[in-house]
Specification:
The chain is an alpha/beta fold. It has one domain: Alkaline Phosphatase, subunit A (3-Layer(aba) Sandwich). Helices cover 37% and strands 12% of the residues. Strands 1, 5, 6, 7, 8, 9 and 10 form a seven-stranded mixed beta sheet that branches. Strands 2-4-3 form a three-stranded antiparallel beta sheet. A hairpin with a 5-residue loop joins strand 3 and strand 4. Helix 1 crosses helix 10, helix 7 packs antiparallel against helix 8 and helix 10 runs parallel beside helix 11. The radius of gyration is 19 Å and the shape is globular.
Length: 353
């Protein structure tokens, strides 16, 4: 099993399983000093349980059974970050990183595309082009660079084939499709350990990718304990593992998911597919110990369609900031990579100058 995981990491780094991995060739002539690692949570994790908006009174009202209690100093409640947000107690290991100023959050980020389909949304992230609906759309992203386009599409098509294999003859197992072939959160920390060793041994590898499934929590999501809490504990351990391996001045780790979940709990004590979500950044150059970007609260008229977090910040804008800081990709090349996105100056505060 260990060898299989190592092979999977090698494949993801070499076969372009995520569009960012194709950036290695574009960044090589910049003599970058940092490394960028993306942790992708397939199935749409509930960011409002990890970054708890305890300062908003509506949070407890719309999540009467799955909401995380306001901070009371115990591990049975949110851990205080500031007057607006707290941290899920299962992520207590990350609190020192926040306090040290190397961990930050963006509470309303994601894809501008409104799709609530795991498959479509993950494809948008993998191609770096929200709204694309076919493999040919991904080739247009890298027009003029056949080798890079071919490599990127190989990875994206592998994901498409995996998802197709998971479809039963007469119905789709939604949770399996949401996982898109990724392993469980329980194995994520070990994957992180292997990735760290691999990228330590080969410093030419500047971009890393990890993913796990198991984040589609429609039923019995849990609160301080339960299935989501267990997943968050595994994620916390993974980030601590990555912090130990990627702690050089320009190293950056990003945590993201294809979309968020509904702000209110559903009738089965879970959450359904949403829109905006919380992205996390970790690294010595990150302006940590704070959240960044726009947050308007949970009032119904401030939510997307009255039910979801809005996307105030395009995920490509977050990547652009991270790529510029860590890998040394210039703004001009960023525009070539993400030709339809707009630079988000509101995120210029993400990294220390």
């Amino acid at each position: 099993m260990m060898q299989t995981r190592r092979q999977a990491i090698l494949q993801s780094l070499s076969a372009g399983a995520f569009a960012l991995q194709g950036l290695h060739a574009m960044a090589a002539d910049e003599d970058p000093k940092g490394r960028l690692v993306l942790v992708f949570l397939r199935g749409a994790y509930d960011g409002l349980s990890m970054l708890v908006p305890h300062g908003d009174p509506r949070y407890a009202q719309i999540r009467p059974t799955i909401g995380i209690p306001k901070p009371d100093g115990s591990l049975q409640s949110a851990l205080t970050l500031d007057d607006t947000f707290g941290l899920h107690p299962a992520c207590s290991g990350l609190l020192p990183l926040w306090q040290q100023g190397v961990l930050a959050a963006i509470p309303c980020a994601g894809s501008p595309d409104p799709s609530r389909s795991h498959f479509d949304a993950q494809y948008h992230w993998e191609t770096g082009k929200p709204g694309s609906s076919s493999p040919s759309a991904g080739r247009q992203l890298y027009a003029g660079d056949e080798k890079l386009a071919s490599t990127m599409m190989e990875g994206a098509n592998n994901r498409m084939a995996t998802a197709a294999m998971l479809k039963p003859a007469n119905m789709v197992n939604e949770q399996q499709a949401a996982n898109n072939g990724a392993g469980s959160p329980q194995g994520l920390s070990l994957d992180a350990k292997h990735l760290g060793a691999l990228m330590r041994q080969n410093r030419q590898l500047q971009l890393g990718f990890l993913s796990s499934g198991g984040w589609d929590t429609h039923i019995n999501q849990g609160s301080v304990t339960g299935q989501l809490a267990n997943n968050l504990s595994n994620l916390s351990n993974t980030l601590l593992q990555l912090r130990a391996a990627f702690s050089e001045p320009k190293d950056v780790v990003i945590v993201a998911s294809e979309f968020g979940r509904t702000c209110a709990e559903n009738g089965t004590r879970g959450t359904d597919h949403g829109h905006g979500n919380v992205m996390w950044l970790m690294g010595n150059g990150v302006k940590g110990g704070q959240w960044h970007g726009r947050w308007d609260g949970l009032a119904a008229d401030k939510l997307n369609e009255g039910r979801d977090l809005p996307v105030h910040h395009d995920f490509r804008a977050v990547f652009a900031q991270a790529l510029t800081h860590s890998v040394g990709v210039t703004k001009g090349k960023i525009q070539e990579i993400f030709p339809t996105y707009q630079w988000d100056s509101a995120l210029d505060t993400l990294f220390k100058s």
